[in-house]
Each structure stands twice: as structure tokens, then as C-alpha cells.
């Protein structure tokens, strides 16, 4: 037997209010309309819900039991309304975010920790990958937003890009390296150094090689290659090798072990932003996180 949940909720209000008129006032109904609804419920049940005591209708045992069910329905509706409101504000829901390893490190994880503390009702899933892997995740709908370099998103690919910061590339070495004492680092200085290179085919490797050629560096003496950001930072800190890393997202790792050289080139420009699928449904949780990340609430 299927009962109208609205009628059960109204029954619970009648029991709480103590009369049809008081309940009708609370519900914004007329007393006759509320009476018709209760009559329809009794017809559906095939029995009465109220006993007549003079001019007063008093709920019987079945009426009281069903009123408890109606109260649960009202509570569920109230909770659903609160949840919907929180969802619209981005304080509850799911955030699925992807990022390259260096971005997903301390730069993003510290922001993520703050977001989780402020929004305990949100579920967060963070995935890492190389640029082509992140693009695939977006296309397949496995993540809602990617924080990555501008080169990951092309309008022709159906991706929208909004810049967050200029995560310029810099030349990284250990603190105390010979080149850190130079007032001006020259291309010849870079040619004379042993390099740690990022994996072949990576955007950072391509950008580094293009910047070095444009700077006048004829050749790079590469003695180590890795696709592990953690290994890059540890090796550079413990040797005299030099490498390139994005400045803003590497900054949290510098401490007193690592330093960027005073060397720059226009080719080191590396905008970092949020990337989403064009026309994807709005995600208030993602909007809230990105607003927090940029300091705009």
C-alpha cells in the first residue's frame, strides 16, 4: 500500500499542534483542506485515524503511530533542504581534482588541508599524473578540475582554462652551490654544469631545452634523468647538479637546502591555472576550493 508522504507529514503536525485549525495555520492551509487530506488518508488506509471526543478529533493508536512516521518524513525533508543549501554554497559535496606531482605536493596539499578543515562535509579525491594522463582524466570525467600548465588545455580540445598564477620555471641548485655567489649567471656558467634532467617528453623538459637554446646555451651536460619530483629535490640538495623547477610550486620545499639561481628568460613563463571540460555541470565545491586557493571568497 502506497501512502502520500505529504499526508503523513501533515498528520504529524496535527498531533503536535493538538488541533486541525492550529495545524492548518502552521502548514499554511485552510482547515477544510487539511481535513480533506486526512479523509483521503483514511480512505486509503480503509480505517479511521481519529476518535471524536465531543467537538474535538483525537488521534487513535494508528494515528499516533503513523504520525511518528510523518515526523520522520518532515525531519528528512528538513535535512535534505539543509544539504541542498550547503551543496549550493559548496560546503558539502565532492571535489575530484587532478594535478601534476609538483603541484599536488606541498603547494596544493596545504591548501587542500585547509579546505577540508573548513568544509568537513566535503569528500575530496586528489589524483596525480603527467599532463597527458591528466587530460585523459578530464575527458573521461574522472576528475572535475585539473590544476596544471596552460599548455594542457586547448579550446579545440573542449577544455576551459582560467589562470591562477605564473609558476615561472627557475634553475634550482643546492644552497651554497658555486653559482649562488655569482651576481650574474651567464649561459657559459650553465654549460659548464652537470644537469639533472626531467623525463624525456615532459613539458618541463621541453620548456627547459627551449629556454636554454634561446638563452645561448649550446649544450647541456645531463648526467641524471628522472620522472620523480621527490628524487629531483633530494638529489639536487645533496649534489652539485642543477636542474629546472617551477618556482611557485617548489617554494615550499626550499627550506635551507635549496635555492633558485638569479637567472631568468621569457621562455620560462609557465602559467598555472584551473582546467575544466567545456560545458561540464557546475560544481560549487570546486568553485569554492578555487576561490579559497586564489584568496577570493
From TrEMBL:
Using the record's annotation, list all stretches that form the HTH lysR-type domain: 3-60
InterPro entries (alphabetical): HTH-type_LysR_regulators, LysR_HTH_N, LysR_subst-bd, WH-like_DNA-bd_sf, WH_DNA-bd_sf
Q: Which keywords describe this protein according to UniProt?
A: DNA-binding, Transcription, Transcription regulation
Example GO molecular function term?
DNA-binding transcription factor activity
Its Gene Ontology cellular component terms are: cytosol
Q: Which SUPFAM superfamilies match?
A: Periplasmic binding protein-like II, Winged helix' DNA-binding domain
The UniProt entry, under PANTHER family, shows: HTH-TYPE TRANSCRIPTIONAL REGULATOR YBHD, NITROGEN ASSIMILATION TRANSCRIPTIONAL ACTIVATOR-RELATED
Tell me its family.
Belongs to the LysR transcriptional regulatory family.
Protein name (record):
LysR family transcriptional regulator
Species this protein is from:
Boseongicola sp. SB0664_bin_43
Q: What is the lineage of its organism?
A: Bacteria, Pseudomonadati, Pseudomonadota, Alphaproteobacteria, Rhodobacterales
